């Protein structure tokens, strides 16, 4: 065990992946000598050489296009997009290419070895081009996996699993936790399962579902609710695609209530999919409408960031509303 | 840290110089004249009789296939087709200069390259009828071929996406330490996409052994080249990226062969990209969905018909004593029969069973897709007449 | 009144818009002399000159980037993306630029005059690159309007309203109806409202919601259900963003049941948003889970297109399941 | 229909010619020497004393602003800043050669252009403190200025998006029939984006009166130019697009002025784009979030510090008899005071009231956003201490 922050955990996972499989290559804007603007790829070029860890020109569509070809060739690319907000120039390469490569070729070729890492989310005074949470844009795209860790331990285990999984994975890192979240992480190689949610806290009265940095918000809200005698079950979804409907449904059948929280705008966010699926599966168990506590349907604002965020207070209020419906 | 100086190679001037035409001429390589003789001063690339005849046969075969499949589309037997009439020399001449280990990433009008590699008539047909013998499992429209065994990447409709992918693929080949390269075909229209820019620039900076092969055939559907770009074709861009560049007459199969051979040599030896611009003309309609009479003249087409690459090659083979008119006629007739027979055969083969609909989305079928499939199967069982392609085989 | 198919209605709307406002400009791949691959822009170059109706180079990101600048300047661009499947290279320009232009500049600059036209949808043996229904990818993006007509009359009225609306509109045309759907359309200038759904058919037992070409499917399924004595209310949403929650909610409060149908894959499709919002608003009125009849969570297949589509039979079966829940 | 011939201008060759270096040299315009004298053979562009002094003052002002705001960021008073130290001549010299009607679409390191247009210190501060006096309503990070009255488009973080937009904006200007043009600034890093390719090609084909102004400052954050492209800078690409191109010493404000003046003249008269590549060096860190000591040497920086554009301009003004040392010192001190005072002032101004959060998403606030706002307001009322910036003013 070692104390690591989330960045160190990512760096550690990348180091292990590169040590164990020489086909693993790490690249993106500024990831080489400099080690990335957040330093997630620090020392990788030094350790593994420039051919395996390198800067690319400044073109996200090129980075993912290049990565798709590299993956199809049989290498194991781990491509970095410097901010989640800048992943959209690569949208076509991801949605029309990465995700459909295997299907369209009848399984002859695939981008299964590709992992795309990108920091996402708000809370860092970044305004609308350094704060977005774009997971829902990709969640509508069959063929991709989407994985989001909530802490350093999860980050290491999930990233190693993502790199080794034979499907393309979009690995989104909650950047406001990069240095803020510190935990004990095993120094050895280990993996955590993709597609499986994690039961963070058991409870009886209401199920709270979130991912990434918002899991902490759910835990705080659960704590606040305790004082009102409300017992919350907290689930970290971890994988957005495919997602663990079974665990959420089982929990809701027990608690009878569900709240989902995400930073992205409400409309068309991934909470809508969870709500739609669970109201179908748990219809007779639900004692109140499924609540969504999300960002507003606006671009991510700067001056009003605090007001915009689906924080623990909003979550707590929604829990109470749901309990007293 | 070593000091860098990004101005090291820049010279000074003291008057405002507007560079209007900053290129040295990029000339077009021509070896064969229309009558099959060589241009004065030109020499033919080293081609054995076998290879030369294979090149001709492949070009002729593709023309037969194109004719036959356009007819099949008109008869409603397939939904779509896309011919390369007039441009056969570009794909066939280039692929003939490569090794079989080299990866081909094509746009869609390069069926000649695939045929040269050995794709059989039956394989062409299985793809076009989307039947269960197609290794791509009938998942894409006709002409979106792909065959891993022949190192031919499955074609994707979104234009230019294969260009940065080719850079990445070639980088992977280099890292794997083998001498194989990637050839990446695309049209002058596709070269307007952002992916073109990304792909060429990355290949140049990251030293990827890839031959970018642009077919400049004057049109992107109805859009003429002059509404596509204002510079000196696509070749001039290569210079801007610091990529070695060759322009070639795309209707001259010997020139295409020679250019590609040299490009491949450079790519392998120097581990770098090379750009080839092949100048040609899309004599065919863009596809069976198109009618070019709406945007260009017969006259213009006729001028290009006179530059037929197949006839030119026949003249040359003849001058080498490698062409036998009657044998060739026999071969043509055989090929026509073969195409016809394979078409009838493939037409009868069913599409894949319904289970296939959820395969290959992921490496294995996840639980939610299994559930969707089960629901679909019981639905099909309830309405077998609505889903005749699959209902007979639902268990 | 004149008989028009959907393409003619689009062409007619464009002609009127260009006649009435000389700032209107129409451009995209092959839209000039040729009139577009579907011929929606036929004769516009002839009538209004090349500077106002022109071919662009083959670059979707460029087309929308150019259109954004043109709109910000004060012109009224109507940009065509040749197929909805090819809109993704422009995703960044649409999601990060078009949609946020006004917000980020505090209302000083905007792309409000922009309309993006694109054909979408399956049923034409187009496989996964000529059949996609990408509306949900954009529905998660505040700042955009998304409009989809179901027939020639709606197409003309909604397109004219979209061009004149002072917000960027993504106008998606159901291409399998281009020539198949023929109707009486007023020859004069008229507009239909954005953001308002259309009650296509009144009913008592269940509300069916769809848009574009799927409205016809809903009507067929409603017809089939009649034989079982089930009375369906059919709503054409018309605007996906912002959507008419009020009309859907009122209908569901009356019928107690809701079914949503779309061609796009189930997960993260726009049906999930409707289901999530309506289960919240109509919780106590719902007599059965909200049903979604959608495409499978796969790329759009070719050989199995018929099996993939959420057709009237699947819809009818889902209606019965919902009625007997 | 007239016949087209896309090969009309192509010459033939009969040997495989690999064009490795197909460009004529693209030289760099230099007028001023470091000591303020002109290069032999160079002549200064026609500049009045007023304009020349305004140029100097703007460059000096920006340096003061940059210094002060970096300090403010270190003190935690603003969250972010981005300096243009060493590159002042590029933005200021170019904008001085334009008309006030010309639209400026910038990347982010061109605060000099904005200041030259008349943006006040108070306005700079209001933007950087995201307060309610900012016309952009505090919606973006510091340095994302925008001012419609000054024809300065609000800056957007995603790189290169403004490039095709500038082509469109300029097309609109041309259609509106006025003589205004658009200038579009970007870095050599941003020029790797697909949007660069799309924008330049479209501007060339559609004859848009736009001046593309590339600041090649050697770095994109930590990435040196040699890992960004392999060709002869960005200028060489202009040739490939058929765009008239000028390369200029970006640290020589007279040269930048002369080049831009000529570029503007061509754009207006010939209704076409012009590309300028200004060679300079980013002496500053990329931004306050960056530390360049991790990727380049002090030594390298020092070499460039010696080429300071401000000092060079002072020498020249001095040689014209237009520079008064003590007056200038006074002016510098005044400017420092002004910046300091404005900073303190802006710091005190509150952010916009909460109602603003749903404004400008659409032309008017739709019902669903009104509902979200109402819910938010009642929440803020319940927890006023959690939202101190807005709770005091919630009604
Ligand atoms: C991204 C994208 N945009 C548009 C299309 C539609 N489309 C198919 S082929 C074509 C023209 C391509 O022209 P070019 O690249 O010159 O190739 P050619 O057909 O001449 O061989 C267009 C616009 C597409 N397939 N992909
Ligand atoms: C699309 C996009 N990708 C990445 C970034 C992050 N980023 C901000 S500035 C920058 C470097 C830009 O370099 P250059 O264009 O040379 O301009 P300079 O900073 O040198 O003035 C990067 C990578 C961004 N803002 N937008
Ligand atoms: Mg072409
Ligand atoms: Mg730079």
Structure description:
The complex is a heterotetramer, with two copies of chain A (325 residues) and two copies of chain B (395 residues). Chain A folds into two domains: 2-185, Thiamin diphosphate (ThDP)-binding fold, Pyr/PP domains (Rossmann fold, 3-Layer(aba) Sandwich); 198-323, Rossmann fold, CATH 3.40.50.920. Chain A is of the alpha/beta class and 325 residues long. In chain A, helix 8 crosses helix 12 (312-323) and helix 9 (245-255) packs across helix 10. Chain A is 35% helix and 20% strand. Chain A has a seven-stranded mixed sheet, sandwiched between helices. A five-stranded mixed sheet of chain A has the order 9-11-10-13-14, sandwiched between helices. In chain A, strands 1-8 form a two-stranded antiparallel sheet. Chain A is built from twelve helices and 14 strands. The radius of gyration of chain A is 19 Å and the shape is globular. Chain B is of the alpha/beta class. Chain B has helices at 49-74, 88-96, 111-117, 121-128, 162-176, 194-205, 235-240, 253-270, 298-305, 309-320, 325-348, 367-382, 388-391, and strands at 12-13, 28-29, 103-105, 182-187, 210-216, 219-220, 223-224, 244-249, 274-279. In chain B, strand 8, helix 8 and strand 9 (274-279) form a beta-alpha-beta unit. The longest helix of chain B is centred in the first third of the chain and has 26 residues, at 49-74. The radius of gyration of chain B is 23 Å and the shape is globular. The model of chain B has no long low-confidence stretch (mean pLDDT 96). Strand 2 of chain B pairs parallel with strand 1 of chain D. Bound molecules: thiamine diphosphate (2 copies) and magnesium ion (2 copies). One magnesium ion binds at residues 187-189, 217, 219-220, 282 of chain D. One magnesium ion is lined by residues 187-189, 217, 219-220, 282 of chain D.
């Amino acid at each position: 065990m070692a104390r690591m922050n989330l960045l160190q955990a990512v760096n550690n996972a990348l180091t292990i992946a590169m040590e164990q499989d020489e086909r693993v290559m790490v690249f993106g804007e500024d990831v080489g000598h400099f080690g990335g603007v957040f330093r997630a790829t620090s020392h990788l070029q030094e350790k593994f050489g420039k051919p395996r860890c390198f800067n690319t020109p400044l073109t996200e569509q090129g980075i993912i296009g290049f990565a798709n070809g590299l993956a199809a060739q049989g290498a194991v690319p781990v491509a970095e997009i410097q901010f989640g907000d800048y992943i959209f120039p690569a949208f076509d390469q991801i949605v029309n290419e990465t995700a459909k490569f295997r299907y369209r070729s009848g399984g002859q070729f695939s981008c299964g070895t590709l992992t795309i890492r990108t920091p996402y989310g708000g809370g860092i005074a970044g305004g609308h081009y350094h704060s977005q949470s774009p997971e829902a844009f990709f969640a509508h795209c069959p063929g991709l996996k989407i994985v989001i860790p909530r802490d350093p331990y999860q980050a290491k285990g999930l990233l190693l699993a993502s790199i080794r999984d034979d499907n393309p994975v979009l690995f989104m890192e909650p950047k406001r936790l990069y240095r803020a979240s510190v935990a004990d992480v095993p120094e050895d190689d280990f993996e955590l399962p993709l597609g499986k949610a994690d039961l963070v806290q058991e409870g009886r009265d209401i199920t709270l579902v979130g991912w990434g940095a918002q899991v902490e918000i759910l835990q705080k809200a659960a704590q606040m609710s305790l004082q009102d005698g409300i017992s919350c079950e907290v689930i970290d979804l971890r994988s957005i695609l495919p997602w663990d409907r079974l665990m959420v449904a089982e929990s809701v059948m027990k608690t009878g209530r569900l709240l989902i929280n995400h930073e992205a705008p409400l409309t068309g966010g991934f909470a809508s999919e969870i709500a739609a699926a669970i109201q179908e599966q748990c219809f007779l168990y639900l004692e109140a409408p499924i609540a969504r506590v999300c960002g507003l349907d606006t671009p991510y604002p700067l001056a009003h960031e605090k007001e915009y965020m689906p924080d623990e207070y909003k979550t707590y209020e929604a829990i109470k509303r749901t309990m007293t419906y | 840290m070593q000091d860098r100086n990004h101005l090291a190679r820049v010279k000074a001037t003291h008057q405002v110089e507007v560079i209007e035409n900053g290129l040295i001429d990029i000339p077009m390589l021509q070896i064969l004249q229309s009558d099959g003789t060589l241009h004065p001063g030109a020499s033919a690339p080293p081609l054995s009789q076998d290879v030369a005849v294979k090149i001709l046969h492949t070009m002729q075969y593709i023309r037969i296939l194109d004719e036959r499949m356009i007819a099949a589309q008109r008869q409603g037997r397939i939904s779509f087709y896309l011919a390369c009439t007039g441009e056969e020399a570009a794909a066939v001449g280039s692929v003939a200069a490569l090794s079989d280990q080299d990866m081909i990433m094509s746009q869609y009008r390069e069926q000649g390259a695939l045929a040269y590699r050995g794709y059989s008539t039956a394989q062409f047909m299985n793809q076009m009828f989307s039947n269960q013998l197609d290794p791509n499992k009938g998942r894409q429209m006709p002409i979106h071929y792909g065959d891993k065994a022949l190192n031919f990447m499955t074609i994707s409709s979104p234009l230019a996406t294969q260009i940065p992918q080719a850079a990445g693929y070639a980088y992977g080949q280099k890292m794997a330490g083998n001498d194989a390269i990637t050839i990446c075909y695309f049209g002058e229209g596709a070269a307007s996409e952002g992916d073109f820019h990304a792909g060429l620039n990355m290949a140049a900076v990251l030293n990827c052994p890839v031959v970018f092969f642009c077919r400049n055939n004057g049109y992107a559907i109805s859009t003429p080249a002059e509404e596509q770009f204002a510079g000196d074709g696509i070749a001039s861009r290569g210079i801007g990226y610091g990529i070695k560049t060759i322009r070639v007459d795309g209707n001259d199969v010997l020139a295409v062969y020679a250019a590609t051979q040299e490009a491949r040599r450079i790519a392998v030896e120097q581990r770098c990209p090379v750009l080839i611009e092949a100048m040609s003309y899309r004599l065919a309609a863009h596809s069976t969905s198109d009618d070019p009479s709406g945007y260009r003249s017969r006259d213009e087409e006729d001028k290009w018909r006179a530059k037929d690459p197949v006839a030119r090659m026949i003249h040359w083979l003849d001058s080498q004593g490698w062409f036998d008119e009657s044998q060739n006629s026999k071969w043509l007739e055989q090929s026509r029969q073969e195409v016809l027979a394979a078409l009838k055969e493939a037409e009868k083969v069913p599409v894949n069973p319904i289970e296939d609909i959820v395969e290959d989305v992921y490496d294995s079928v996840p639980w939610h897709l299994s559930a969707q499939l089960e629901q679909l199967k019981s639905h099909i069982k309830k309405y077998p007449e609505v889903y005749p392609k699959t209902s007979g085989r639902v268990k």
